[in-house]
Amino acid sequence: MEEKIRQLTQACSEEISAAGSENALYAVRVKYLGKNGLISDLMKGMKDLTPQQRPVMGKLVNDARSALETEFTEKGNQLHEAELAQKLAAEKIDITINKGRSVGKLHPLNAVRKRLVDFFVSMGFEVMDGPEVETDYYNFEALNVPKDHPARDMQDTFFLGGNLLLRSQTSASQVRYMEDHKPPLKMISPGRVFRNDDDATHSPVFHQLEGLVVDKGITMCDLKGILDSFAKHFFGSDTKVRFRPSYFPFTEPSVEVDVSCSMCHGKGCKICKGTGWIEILGAGIVNRKVLKICGIDPDEYTGFAFGFGIDRIANIIHSIPHIKLLYENDIRFLEQF
Ligand code: PHE
Which stretch of 67-81, 83-97, 200-214 has the lowest confidence by average pLDDT? Predict the structure, then answer.
């Protein structure tokens, strides 16, 4: 067995030296050190040894394994650097080249934002943006999220000190709008918002479009009607909309809104994670307390509000897998639109 360990270690060392790429090295690693690899197989032979031999052999195998691990790491670093250098050399962009007739166009995010705004404007909505640095009052308190309320955790907010923060939702602009306008109101607030959140579908900076309608006799049916037209316009005329009960402090009742998946038409696919539905927005009937805070009589008027991420809509429309692609401005990505 000792001889076998020596032979395997030597063979593995030779294959490590010969590996010409990170992928090839990985294959060698799996062959020898993988769960069912040749070195791991040796351990399985232990049961045939005497109790005295076992610890001795165990140590030999483990020593061989850790020596090989070191070799793998060193070779891996070498290959990684070589591959990186090669990639940098190959992908160099010559900024002096005059490409002639290349024509500029809107960034996909701006293009989608423009289409969304156009859609709501065509339905009679007014557009308003507000400050990105907001006060606690407009971002939270006026929206029925008092200080120390657990609902603040729903939006990982960047607090700036004092009473200031980076707005975590454009609902803040809606409060400003309600203060300055008398119902009937019909407005959208598209804009940049900020949350301490970072993964494939979340970015610390993203874009929201929130809508607000306040008038006499507004109900959930009006909300559903608008969202139905919206979904059909952007995701196809056979798109269905469904409401699921949810919670937001500024709406009561609140709903989470899903659209049927436009890729598989509800059958279930990778995009909708097999469910047939894609969650796109939050909405609800404006909480009476919010209307009152903004100087609107909740016994006379009711309203609905909804809010979604423009980035998310752009990603769904264009099947973009990672939100960061929208912000890196890699020309190879942007050219595809
Ligand atoms: N402001 C909410 C958010 O950012 C979305 C929302 C808007 C929910 C309006 C309900 C009504 O999560």
Answer: 83-97
